[in-house]
Amino acid sequence: MGEQMNESGRLRVLLADDQPLLRMGFRLILEGEDGLEVVGEASDGADAVRQVGHLDPDVVLMDVRMPTLDGIEATRAITGSGSRARIIILTTFDLDEYAFAGLQAGASAFLLKDVAPAELVQAVRVVASGDAVVAPRVTQRLLEMYVRGAGPAVSDGPGTPGTAAPPAAAPAPRDPLLEDLTPRETEMLEAMSEGLSNAEIAHRYFLSEATVKTHVRRILTKLHLRDRVQAVVYAYETGLVTPSNPDY
């Protein structure tokens, strides 16, 4: 679950957005950085899925609103295909339903379209490494979406059927895979679900960061998960994490 690598030693990025100017701007930012390479551009979700199959990128910057196939369904198709590409969802509004639908579909992070250049570059590098962290405020929203009840319907515009977040009125049955985790690994997963980084987990449990990283890698392997962000989504969906405070 370490950093993705390819023969060139550069991180390969695919841009998927129906706005040419936005793609151009992101390309200029990313190609101005050492070790990053934009290998392709897609103008809709279906094209993004095809290009991932041909180009094998490390990271896909995926807009949610695109013709033919929206970014959520494209993300679901790419992650479901077994592709190693990690996906960053691009949204217009912070903490909107698209961001969380994207994470549920298998994305590793989300960013606002007006993200600062340095933050964009950092996000691509972190997501490629598999060490992306769900921020605490995102954790709170995920709790609301996955534990307290169904979230708002997600659609790609007027006339497009929406996909509601899964209802969570009844607790999900405990996944048998959780029984494969050691007590320490279960603690690590719960800490990850709070949005803690490896350094913060190490500080809490008086461990080295290297030890925490080993635990995280084992958790992802045992639960068949792509990265730590997907581990957080998994923890909520399986009922491992529940609100401890009704006013959370």
From TrEMBL:
> One Pfam family from the UniProt entry?
GerE
Q: Where is the Response regulatory domain?
A: 12-128
Keyword Phosphoprotein in record:
yes
Q: Where is the composition biased (Low complexity)?
A: 157-167
Sequence ranges assigned to domain HTH luxR-type in this UniProt record: 174-239
Looking up Gene3D superfamilies in the UniProt record yields: 3.40.50.2300
Q: Which UniProt keywords apply?
A: DNA-binding, Phosphoprotein, Transcription, Transcription regulation
> Its GO biological process terms?
phosphorelay signal transduction system; regulation of DNA-templated transcription
Modified positions (4-aspartylphosphate) in chain numbering: D63
Q: Which domain of life is it from?
A: Bacteria
| PROSITE patterns linked to this entry | HTH_LUXR_1, HTH_LUXR_2, RESPONSE_REGULATORY
Q: Does the keyword Cell inner membrane apply?
A: no
The protein's matches in SUPFAM superfamilies, at most eight in alphabetical order, are given as: C-terminal effector domain of the bipartite response regulators (SSF46894), CheY-like (SSF52172)
Enumerate the residue ranges of region (Disordered).
153-175
Q: Name one GO molecular function term.
A: DNA binding
Under the heading PANTHER family, the entry gives:
TRANSCRIPTIONAL REGULATORY PROTEIN NARL-RELATED, TWO-COMPONENT RESPONSE REGULATOR
According to UniProt, the name of this protein is DNA-binding response regulator
* Source organism per UniProt: Arthrobacter globiformis
